[in-house]
Write a structure and sequence with these properties.
Layout (H helix, E strand, L loop, with lengths): L8 H7 L11 E2 L2 H11 L8 E2 L2 E2 L1 H14 L3 H11 L2 H8 L8 H13 L12 H7 L19 H12 L7 H8 L21 H13 L3 H13 L22 H13 L3 H12 L26 H12 L18 E2 L24 H27 L1
Parallel strand pairs: 1-4
Antiparallel strand pairs: 2-3
């Protein structure tokens, strides 16, 4: 019985004393995947993002959740998560648990743990949900315990509700009601509680909407979405909240990304489509410098200090991410870069056959691989003949 011998190219190369070709880095034409790939290049030591030269756990969490939403760069997301759950990283971000304890940090890190398939009650030696419960006041508000003051706000409360809704115990009703009670008369939500005049924030409202949907508060969420769509600019983008953009409140990727996630959650398809168009227009393509390709700029101009946060925030919305469901399930390991190769073309001649598609395999590699296969085949035939003779 004749057997067919199948030998990988790498094995053939080794049999002939040749070096196997290096594995090519993955490339993609998908804009979201390219943005995710660029974001991984900004991770210091491959594990964390920084702001103004300092490690930024909150921004790193944003990046990991964005990678999860896109579904690529799983290796980078896992490495960043491993840094985030180190005891030192945890203590620096959420406080030491005695003198300092921050509500928003506990909630956001718990959400990250849930998305990454980890137990939020066992992160860096800390029980995040138990500690978060201890920070809840009788009113339902989750407040900071700190000698520097209480800086908890609608972001903290929303993250707590979302994280807890993703656990078997769910969020306490009074936590949800406190958040609902902060809604302004026009439907928006402020960034800070107990303002003399309730002033809506696009960033805060975008996050609160996701928390309201998680808690089943669809009526309040609908009012907030009405306010959001009323703040959308003609180009599809959003400012931080002002009706008319100015130099201090420009239309930008961060605010638009927050709004887009809420618009998608509420199925406001027309407004979401306009926001998507605005955000994709901020992305650097093949015409830009190689080390910037894939990045999403804050407002159209690349700035190294702003681009990672803008990319993470915008990408989450572009990838149809939801904090209520995002997870690393099914994520692929590799972090692709933007494919800027130009397919080769051939000038047709009367005798020329069809032009072969570009496959990415160099002709020289195919040539020596073919020769190696022939040589190995000849050796195999000769050996077989010797065996028959014997």
């Amino acid at each position: 019985m004749r057997r067919t011998l199948l030998v990988p190219v790498a094995a053939v190369a080794l049999s002939l004393g040749l070096a196997a070709p290096a594995q090519a880095a993955p490339v993609t034409k998908d804009a979201n995947q390219a943005a995710a790939g660029w974001l991984t290049t900004q991770l210091k030591d491959g594990e964390r993002l920084q702001s103004s030269g300092y490690d930024d756990a909150g921004l790193t969490i944003d990046a990991v959740l964005a990678l999860d939403a896109v579904g690529v760069a799983g290796d980078a997301a896992a490495k960043a998560t491993a840094w985030l759950v180190k005891p030192d990283s945890v203590a620096n971000y959420i406080g030491d648990g005695t003198k300092e304890s921050y509500a928003g940090g506990h909630a956001k890190l718990a959400l990250l743990a849930i998305a990454q398939g980890k137990d939020p009650e066992s992160v860096g030696g800390r029980k995040l949900l138990t500690e978060l419960a201890a920070l809840q006041e009788a009113s339902g508000r989750y407040s900071d315990k700190s000698e520097y003051g209480n800086y908890s706000n609608t972001f903290s409360q929303s993250l707590a509700v979302i994280a807890l809704q993703r656990t078997p115990g769910k969020a306490p009703a009074k936590a949800v009601e406190f958040l609902v009670g902060s809604q302004c008369a026009d439907g928006a939500f402020p960034q800070d509680f107990a303002q003399p005049t309730c002033t809506g924030s696009v960033d805060a409202t975008g996050l609160v909407v996701q928390a309201l949907f998680a808690a089943g508060k669809t009526t309040e969420a609908g009012k907030a979405l009405d306010w959001l769509t009323g703040r959308q600019q003609a180009n599809g983008g959003f400012t931080s909240g002002v009706a008319v953009p100015d130099k201090d409140n420009p239309v930008n990727a961060n605010s638009t990304g927050n709004a887009l996630a809420a618009l998608r959650a509420g199925k406001r398809t027309t407004a979401a489509s306009k926001a998507t168009t605005y955000l994709t227009g901020l992305q650097i393509g093949c015409a830009g410098p190689a080390d910037q390709r894939g990045a999403i700029t804050f407002d159209g101009t690349f700035t190294a200090g702003k681009a990672p946060r803008a990319t993470a925030g915008a990408l989450f919305g572009l990838a149809n991410g939801s904090l209520n469901t995002v997870s690393n399930t099914g994520i692929t390991a590799a972090a692709p870069s933007l494919d800027c190769t130009v397919p080769a073309t051939a000038t047709p001649t009367p005798t020329a056959g069809p032009v072969l598609p570009v496959t990415g395999s160099p002709a020289s590699l195919l040539a020596w691989a073919g020769a190696a296969m022939l040589a190995l085949g000849a050796c195999t035939v000769a050996l077989a003949r010797r065996r028959r003779s014997a």
